[in-house]
Design brief:
59 residues, flat, 2 helices, 0% strand
Length: 59
């Protein structure tokens, strides 16, 4: 079951990356929306990683 969940997450991540590249080349509106969501999710993950590192380095 865990393998299926992780496979699904991997497929979504790869699909999001494909949409980012396609949107950069002028894809349709839905591709640009998916690309924007992917970039937002990446930024949120990046920010959460930075705050965790900052918190851990203070200890």
């Amino acid at each position: 079951m865990l393998v299926l969940v992780l496979s699904g997450v991997l497929v979504l991540a790869i699909g999001g990356c494909v949409c980012v590249v396609w949107a950069a080349r002028g894809g349709p509106r839905w591709v640009r929306a998916v690309a924007a969501g992917t970039r937002m999710a990446g930024e949120l993950v990046s920010r959460s990683g930075r705050t965790n590192r900052r918190t851990n380095s203070d200890e």
